[in-house]
Amino acid sequence: MLEFGVNELVARMFRQQGRGFLLQCAQENPNQSGLVNVISHVEQCLAETIDIDQLARIACMSRSKLYQQFKHCFGCGPMEYIQQRRLEKACDLIRKGNSITQTCYDVGYSNPSHFSRLFHQQYGMSPREYAARSWV
Prior knowledge:
The chain is mostly helical and 136 residues long.
């Protein structure tokens, strides 16, 4: 049982480190590989509607291969990754003092209620609670 736990911890650490590495590569050299191109595109277009077929074309992969690569590198699918990145950016914007409603729109959500619900699922608190707790 302990060995399984250690293996799971190592796998999670590798995924997180791999994610950071790919983000760094996307910023430094966005033309390096298909998956790096996708990450770079996502970072540039967080506030826009992002289509999986478009991402697959950018990566020069089929949809299924794109899902497979994302699952392998990040432990989640592309849409879940996009949602995580949007919410991470929302945290940064809220910390900087932006209004929650404006932050919602700035990171690509069109419904503040939906944004608040997803934020709460991800961080265990509403955006208002986050703003009140953090960085005051």
